[in-house]
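W.,

You were right to be curious about this one. When I first looked at the sequence I had no strong expectations either way, so I just let the prediction run and decided to look at it fresh. Below is the sequence, 128 residues in total, followed by the output.
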Amino acid sequence: MEVVNAIGRRKAAVARVFVSEGTGKIVINKRELDNYFPSTILQYVVKQPLNKLDVTEKYDIKINLNGGGYKGQAEAARLGIARALVKINPEDKSALRAEGFMTRDPRVVERKKPGQPKARKRFQFSKR
């Protein structure tokens, strides 16, 4: 099997995912998964599509992550892995879709408006 690639995005984070057959090693920005994401919760988030399909030990995954915070990066990686797995085996799509791993979360930060301190916050109103 050749290398299958996919892109996952979340907020400002972009994950370029490369999946090849292997032993279940996940490398993010040339670092191991447990080194890049010390939090077990975020490690779990990244592995969710693999655990759902029981293919954790079947593929080696290389991920280039940039932008965003660690939560957004973990969820971008999850989307990228799910998309790559569907490219490998299209029958898995319905199982991943049911868990919500195929859906790109469209929520992003609202832009700051002129004449206001933040996107929705207003400066204090003074009548006199």
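Here's what jumped out at me. The first strand starts at residue 4 and ends at 10. And, maybe more interesting for your project: The two ends are 73 Å apart (CA to CA).

Coffee later to discuss?

I.
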